[in-house]
Design a protein that fits this description.
elongated, alpha+beta, single chain, two-stranded antiparallel sheet, 8-stranded antiparallel barrel
C-alpha cells in the first residue's frame, strides 16, 4: 500500500496531505481547514477496496489528540535531558577521577614521571628473575586519581602494550611518607621505599634485602589511546544517537501508523546500535594494532546492545504517540 500526496483545494490552506492509494478518487477531509475534497485519481492504481469506511475519509495527517502530543513532547524532552545528563555526569566523573588521591613529597615526586626502569640492582643472595612488570625498560606511570600502569611500550607509537602476558599491569597506588604500596587483583600487594637519588632518578627499594631494587629515570609521557572522551562520545554516545535516528526514519517510511513502528523501530535500533558500535570499536582496534586483550569492537557492541534495549523502547513509545 503506497502513500500519495495531494494539495488541499482550499486556496487559503494549500496544505500538502498524505493519503492511502486506495483513497484516490474518494472524498477526504483536510485536517487543517476541515474542507472536504475529492482526492484525484492516479492512473494505474487499483480501484478502492472494502477498506473505505467512514473513518478513512479523513486524510492521513489528521492531528493526534492533544494529550498524545503533550506526552510525546514531554518524553522527547526527557530523552534530551537524559543525554545531556549523561554527558555532564561523564565530565563530572572525569573531574573526580582526576583529583589527587595521594599527597606529600613522595606522591608529588611519583606524579612527576613517568619513570622508566633503567637498572635492576639484584638483592643479596637473590637468584630469582624479577617479574615481567618490573623488568628493565618498563615504564611506570602514576596517575593523580590513584591508578598506576606498568609495562612495555609500543616504541613506534609510545603507547603501552596492554597485553598482561607481556608484563602490563594496572595498579592502585598510595603513599605513606616515603612508602609506596601497589595493589591489584592479579598480584600480591607490593611495597617499596621511594628514594630520590638525583633530580631525574629514583629507586624503589623493597622491604626485603633479598629482593631487587628498581632504579627508574624520568622519561617522556606515555600517549593514551584511545583518549577516554573520544571513547565515550565517539564510540558510545554518537553511535547510539545515530542508531536511534536511522531507526526512526526507516520505520517512519515503512509504517505510517505510529504503533506499527513498535515492531520495526525497536529491533532496528538494536541492529544499528550493534553495527555502529562494533564498527567504531573495529576502527579503534585497527588504530591500536589490536594491543588490547579484549577487542574494542566487542566492548562497543556490548555497550551499544545494552543501550539499544532502552533507546529502542523509547523510540517505539514515541512512535505510538506521534504517528506523523
Amino acid at each position: 500500500m503506497s502513500i500519495l500526496r495531494v494539495i488541499c483545494a482550499n486556496p487559503q490552506c494549500q496544505k500538502i496531505l498524505r493519503i492511502h492509494s486506495w483513497q484516490a478518487g474518494k472524498r477526504i477531509r483536510c485536517p487543517s481547514c476541515r474542507v472536504a475534497l475529492i482526492a484525484p485519481q492516479v492512473a494505474g492504481l487499483a480501484a478502492a477496496t472494502a477498506l473505505e469506511d467512514t473513518a478513512a475519509q479523513d486524510a492521513l495527517d489528521a492531528p493526534p489528540p492533544l494529550w498524545m502530543t503533550a506526552l510525546f513532547w514531554l518524553l522527547f524532552l526527557a530523552g534530551f535531558v537524559v543525554v545531556v545528563a549523561a554527558a555532564i555526569g561523564f565530565e563530572v566523573y572525569l573531574y573526580v577521577d582526576g583529583l589527587p588521591a595521594n599527597e606529600g613529597p613522595t606522591a608529588t615526586l611519583l606524579l612527576g614521571g613517568p619513570w622508566k626502569v633503567v637498572k635492576v640492582e639484584a638483592g643479596r643472595d637473590s637468584a630469582a628473575e624479577p617479574p615481567a612488570w618490573s623488568a628493565k625498560g618498563n615504564v611506570w606511570t602514576f596517575h593523580e586519581g590513584g591508578q598506576a600502569e606498568t609495562g612495555k611500550l609500543l616504541e613506534e607509537r609510545n603507547r603501552y602494550d596492554r597485553k598482561p602476558t607481556n608484563g602490563f599491569r594496572t595498579w592502585t597506588w598510595k603513599t605513606d611518607g616515603n612508602q609506596l604500596t601497589l595493589t591489584n587483583d592479579a598480584d600480591a600487594d607490593m611495597k617499596f621505599a621511594v628514594v630520590r637519588r638525583s633530580q631525574d632518578r629514583i629507586a624503589l627499594t623493597p622491604p626485603s634485602q633479598e629482593e631487587p631494587i628498581l632504579v627508574l629515570d624520568r622519561t617522556a609521557a606515555v600517549k593514551e589511546f584511545p583518549e577516554i572522551r573520544t571513547l565515550f562520545y565517539g564510540g558510545i554516545l554518537a553511535p547510539m544517537l545515530c542508531a536511534f535516528l536511522l531507526a526512526w526514519l526507516i520505520s517512519r517510511e515503512v509504517f505510517y501508523a505510529g504503533c506499527l513502528r513498535f515492531a520495526l523501530g525497536w529491533p532496528l535500533t538494536a541492529i544499528f546500535g550493534l553495527a555502529l558500535g562494533a564498527g567504531a570499536g573495529y576502527l579503534l582496534d585497527v588504530l591500536d594494532d589490536y594491543s588490547h586483550p579484549v577487542p574494542y569492537w566487542l566492548v562497543m557492541a556490548f555497550a551499544q546492545g545494552i543501550l539499544s534495549v532502552f533507546t529502542g523502547f523509547y523510540l517505539a513509545v514515541l512512535s505510538c504517540l506521534r504517528p506523523a
